[in-house]
Amino acid sequence: MVEVTIRTENEAALQKLLEFISTIGFQVVGKKQVKNGKSKPAVKPKEKSAPPPEPPITWAKEPEKAAEMFGIWKGKEIDPEELRKEAWGGRL
User: Fold this and answer.
1) Do residues 39 and 33 make contact, with C-beta atoms less than 8 angstroms apart?
2) What's the average model confidence in pLDDT over 59-88?
3) Nearest alpha carbon to residue 25 among 44, 2, 52
4) What is the Cα–Cα distance from 69 to 76, expressed in whole angstroms?
5) What pTM was estimated for this model as a whole?
6) pLDDT tens for residues 2-57?
7) 3-12 contacts, C-beta under 8 A, 24 or more apart
8) Are 22 and 14 in contact (CB under 8 A)?
9) Which of 21, 42, 85, 90 fits 30 for a cystine, CB–CB 3.0-4.6 Å?
10) What are 38's strand-pairing partners?
11) How many whole angstroms separate alpha carbon 22 and alpha carbon 25?
12) How far is CA 20 from the centre of its chain?
């Protein structure tokens, strides 16, 4: 098992980092503060929060039909710049 030590003076940033680390499945073993060369005992981490929600991804119902889409632009006179303008509507 690999262990990582993080040293910072920004307590708020540390709390956010620990929360993030917990959400992605890493284990927070302990936390201790060092002031004037004296260390305080490790503090138990917060309870694990609920796992993040699943992203709203919908997969193709019939992915084997994707091959039918190959070459849909063949024979059509459209350059990449024109296609980009139509797709993005000038938002680029």
Assistant:
1) yes
2) 79
3) 52
4) 14
5) 0.34
6) 788 888 888 888 888 888 888 888 888 877 776 665 555 555 556 677 787 777 77
7) 3/29
8) no
9) 42
10) 35
11) 5
12) 10
